[in-house]
Design brief:
There is one protein chain. By secondary structure, this protein is α+β, with helices and mostly antiparallel strands. It has 5 helices and 19 strands. It has 2 domains: 131 residues, Diaminopimelate Epimerase, Chain A, domain 1 (Roll); 113 residues, Diaminopimelate Epimerase, Chain A, domain 1, CATH 3.10.310.10. A hairpin with a 4-residue loop joins strand 4 and strand 5.
C-alpha cells in the first residue's frame, strides 16, 4: 500500500487529494491523512478523499472524507462534485449516486461542464446541527468580536452563518478558531461570514473546521443560502460568491438543496506513503 495513485482536483480552489480504494482497500489513520494533506511535505489539500465500494447497491461509490487535520467528516459539497465528475467520466453516464456518511447524494452533469449535486435536506433543528442544548437555530446566543447571533444549519456537517455588512473586513483567521470550538457545538462547526451583495446574491467567506480558511466551501454555500432565506434576506435561489469563484444554490420547495458549480483536475501522480509517515 506504500505506493498510491492519486488525483488532485479542486472546486473553486477548495482542493482535494482523491484516492481510489474500490479495488484495493486503503486504510489511513489521522496521521497518514495529515501527512498527505501537508502542503510542505505531502501533496497538499484541504480534504483527503477516498472513493470506496458502496454498501448500498443503489450507489455508484462511497465517498470517505478526511479534513486536513486528519479527522473524518461526513460531508463535503465541492468534493462530491469532483468525485461525481470522475465517476461520470469513468462510466460515460451523465448522473451518479454517491453514498456518504451524511446520506446518498445524486449528481448530474450540466451542459456547461458544471456539476449539480442534490445535497439533500438541511438540518434546522438544534439536535440535527447538533448543538449542545435546545436553542433557536435561527439566532444563536454566541459570538466573537463583530460576529453575533449566527444561524445554524446542518448540511451533513454543522455550520454557523454570521450575517455581516462587509465580509472582507472580518478577521476570520483570528475569530474562526474560537467559534469553531465554541461549547455550543459538540462536534465543532464550520464558520461562515455572509454579506448580502445584491438581489439573491451573497458574498461568503468560510473557516472550515479542521481545515481553516478555504477558497470555497460547498456545504458552507448551501448553509448560507438556507440561512439567508430563513432570515428573509434572499429568495430560494442564490448566487454565492466565494474567494475561489461562484456557486449556484437552489433550496427547492420540497426542501432539498441543489448545488451547482465547476470542477477541475490539477494533476495526477504517485505518492509513497511510507516516505510521508
Amino acid at each position: 500500500m506504500s505506493n498510491l495513485h492519486f488525483t488532485k482536483m479542486h472546486g473553486l480552489g477548495n482542493d482535494f487529494v482523491i484516492l481510489d480504494a474500490r479495488r484495493d482497500a486503503i486504510v489511513l489513520d489521522a496521521a497518514g491523512a495529515r501527512a498527505i494533506a501537508d502542503r510542505h511535505t505531502g501533496v497538499g489539500c484541504d480534504q483527503l478523499i477516498l472513493i470506496e465500494r458502496p454498501e448500498d447497491a443503489n450507489a455508484d461509490a462511497f465517498m470517505r472524507i478526511h479534513n486536513a487535520d486528519g479527522g473524518e467528516v461526513a460531508a463535503c459539497g465541492n468534493a462530491a462534485r469532483c468525485v461525481a465528475a470522475l465517476l461520470m467520466a469513468e462510466t460515460g453516464q451523465d448522473n451518479v449516486r454517491i453514498q456518504t456518511r451524511a446520506g446518498m447524494l445524486t449528481a448530474n452533469a450540466m451542459d456547461d461542464g458544471w456539476v449539480t449535486v442534490d445535497m439533500g435536506m438541511p438540518g434546522l433543528k438544534w439536535n440535527e446541527i447538533p448543538l449542545a442544548g435546545d436553542q433557536d437555530t435561527l439566532s444563536l446566543p454566541i459570538g466573537a468580536g463583530p460576529l453575533m447571533q449566527p444561524t445554524a444549519v446542518s448540511m451533513g456537517n454543522p455550520h454557523a452563518v454570521f450575517f455581516v455588512d462587509d465580509a472582507e473586513k472580518i478577521d476570520l483567521a483570528n475569530l474562526g478558531p474560537g467559534l469553531e470550538h465554541d461549547p455550543m457545538f459538540p462536534e465543532r462547526a464550520n464558520i461562515g461570514v455572509a454579506q448580502v451583495t445584491g438581489k439573491d446574491q451573497l458574498r461568503l467567506r468560510v473557516w472550515e473546521r479542521g481545515a481553516g480558511i478555504t477558497l470555497a466551501c460547498g456545504t458552507g454555500a448551501c448553509a448560507a443560502a438556507v440561512a439567508a432565506h430563513r432570515r428573509e434576506l434572499t429568495g430560494r435561489t442564490v448566487t454565492v460568491m466565494l474567494d475561489g469563484g461562484t456557486l449556484e444554490i437552489h433550496w427547492r420547495d420540497d426542501g432539498r438543496v441543489m448545488m451547482t458549480g465547476p470542477v477541475a483536475t490539477s494533476f495526477a501522480g504517485e505518492l509513497d506513503l511510507s516516505a510521508l509517515t
